[in-house]
Amino acid sequence: xxxxxxxxxxxxxxxxxxxxxxxxxxxxxxxxxxxxxxxxxxxxxxxxxxxxxxxxxxxxxxxxxxxxxxxxxxxxxxxxxxxxxxxxxxxxxxxxxxxxxxxxxxxxxxxxxxxxxxxxxxxxxxxxxxxxxxxxxxxxxxxxxxxxxxxxxxxxxxxxxxxxxxxxxxxxxxxxxxxxxxxxxxxxxxxxxxxxxxxxxxxxxxxxxxxxxxxxxxxxx
Length: 221
Fold this sequence. Notes:
Layout: E1 3-4, H1 12-20, H2 25-33, H3 38-46, E2 52-56, E3 66-74, E4 81-85, H4 95-103, E5 108-112, H5 113-122, E6 128-129, H6 130-138, E7 142-149, H7 153-165, H8 172-182, H9 186-193, E8 196-199, H10 202-217
Parallel strand pairs: 1-2
Antiparallel strand pairs: 2-7, 3-7, 3-8, 4-5, 4-6
């Protein structure tokens, strides 16, 4: 049982939950060992090097995987998936964000993750928030990733059920660690996390299906 970790601030509450869970220490160490950007985790998952991970939405409908009602969802805006105007240039770290840029008909350089958040906070006028444009057009949240499994589905299903009941509080020392390492202050991290939801319900499911339909129409997927 190895979980693929995407070490971005948007998943900080879930990773704190895993650390505080009753998983044994070997499993917790394995989580720290198997970490990377979304595209790397996608590949590790497809090669079955990890048993579960938050998989890019554009890859979540592949065969032989199961999904759980948990994901990375931007309610209206996100600030960490952005485009800088100019020639179209993908971010190699994220298949979904690149696809979303094309679906929205936006040209520019795609930037994701904590570095994107830092840049946006410093000069929001220089960037386009892709989730915000999606919401303005569709009046729906945007699902960037889904929790998927290829082993131990019932075990992860129980973990998800427990996570949904928890009110995760991020310890101050962890907030400070991320603030120092990512160059984003603690207050901004907390405000950013308010933009993110994890539950996949009817509205999120509808948004995901619409995105996949539009991507397929463009030959993306």
